[in-house]
């Protein structure tokens, strides 16, 4: 209920903020207020939200046919090579879209035809940064929302009736008509989810988030939500186990305002475990299912390696602080040594 109240209040503010941003820059879309569900808001923890801001004027996406080196400075001269994209990153070029607004060719987002939302040398060129900062201080939101950091993405803090929440605003290119070639899924001989459900999941496509300087991050938030919504079609207790795991993470293993382990990490652990244990009989007993998830989480945190569910070469813990992961691993080890002593902390037991 606390998180639901936060989401409702954040929605209203985000609607007003993105409407102002869209009025300032046509390339960004306003996020409408929804009474039921808002797919642009992802709750990473009770005090940490990710808000994806859809961009306008880029449609008809197609995969790039050739790879080439990029050499950039702020002035656009070919002097220093930027690093190659990692597993969950890719270049994005204007010519990859069959239809695009001329504004995407402007110098504040384009270098030699490549879309670059944030320049490392000067974050002030970030169009979402400029618009959000202007709107926050010029509109009626100045007393409710404050800018924390401005860089690759924009971070703001908002006071709600039940506490403060930190919000990350990330530009998003939605690609609902295709599935990334970087994500070969479902895997061969995989029994979860069913082939029909997998086709449904892939029909939602993917998106690209501007969360790096030169590269765009592959995102499958919509596809992951569909998987999550249809967890227990066979009558299992997967969702109940996931909710219990999340409660233990938030209350015991990894509390705090900026936890090193987020709900997205737990969700990925759940998906991998469901794929390994695909049958309904594996999820009939709540205690066994919860311990199965806890063991998987402990292994990933201890090894500091959690594969992205769709892009296996991507490590979701790559940039996490080692000391924080070690602390979480110790708490998980204590729980797994004597899980019965923690059962009283769970409202699900």
From TrEMBL:
SMART domains on file: Mab-21 (SM01265)
Organism domain of life: Eukaryota
Endpoints of the signal sequence: none
Domain spans labelled Mab-21-like nucleotidyltransferase: 37-230
Residue ranges occupied by any Mab-21-like HhH/H2TH-like domain in the UniProt entry: 237-333
Stated family: Belongs to the mab-21 family.
Name listed for the protein in its UniProt record: Mab-21 like 3
Annotated source species: Myotis lucifugus (Little brown bat)
Taxon lineage: Eukaryota, Metazoa, Chordata, Craniata, Vertebrata
